[in-house]
Amino acid sequence: MAKPQDKVIISCAVTGAMHTPTMSPYLPITPDQIAEQSIEAAEAGAAILHLHARNPVDGSPTPDPKIFDQFVPRIKAATDAVINITSGGSTRMTLEERLAYPLMAKPEMCSLNMGSMNFSIHQAAHKITDWKHPWEKPYVEGMEDLIFRNTFKDIKHILQTLGDGCGTRFEFECYDIGHLYNLAYFIDEGLVKGPLFIQSIYGILGGVGPDPENLVMMRTTADRLFGRENYRFSVLGAGRHQMSLLTMGAVMGGNVRVGLEDSLYLAKGQLAHTCADQVRKIRRILEELSLEIATPDEARAMLGLKGKDSVGF
């Protein structure tokens, strides 16, 4: 008899560094907006909150620890959610900039992109003629000629300084099949130990496409490399592929990630007003499929996290 499926962890990526203010008036920009949307998402059922920071004046991505500090402690005080700080930042940030706040905050979790890659939404600029801020158009168009850098040496540095040095565990972001093999390499090198939390990502130009067959390929490859009992699988579908791929992934025993970082929409042609809109929608879908939603403390136990009281903020 097959064992019962574990509860589903809902992650919420609140603002990211990819979308710009022109693309949605609901994208959280200021520390107050990021805190409010994070707290609402946690109340709606998100066990993990994945956080970036933005310049509160113009919405541009920033690694400034002083900006992070205006909303991260507030979210911790108001929720029990696991706080997951980006180590990716944006394609325009150096490794030192990307790690500045995580090394100060020593969070329970950080994201970790498992390889260097082309990462672009430059085609979105073709649809916009009137930009709110001068930085946005060159930022989006410029992605065509930029690479997100995470070399093997970069990843090793993050694993040692944040992982070993701070007790932080990782959301291993895998945008393609090779990223799973990169993760297996670091396990073989003794730099990564389970339980693993693998965030498989579909639909970003430069990574694997949003075809359902690719989700199956990523899942079965992860099973082969790690053994299903040794990792937690999660699914991120970019843009319009969000809800369909998440539902498919959950039925296959995975966890899910929503949020305005990943998609600005709630349904076709309908912008999401808050991240919590997406959390509530995927929660309803999952519960109608008789799947149970994990609480933050259940997620901590499933992922082997150090606990809310062991962070630096």
TrEMBL record:
<keyword id="KW-0808">Transferase</keyword>
<keyword id="KW-0862">Zinc</keyword>
<keyword id="KW-0479">Metal-binding</keyword>
<dbReference type="InterPro" id="IPR013785">
    <property type="entry name" value="Aldolase_TIM"/>
</dbReference>
<protein>
    <submittedName>
        <fullName>3-keto-5-aminohexanoate cleavage protein</fullName>
    </submittedName>
</protein>
<dbReference type="InterPro" id="IPR008567">
    <property type="entry name" value="BKACE"/>
</dbReference>
<dbReference type="Pfam" id="PF05853">
    <property type="entry name" value="BKACE"/>
</dbReference>
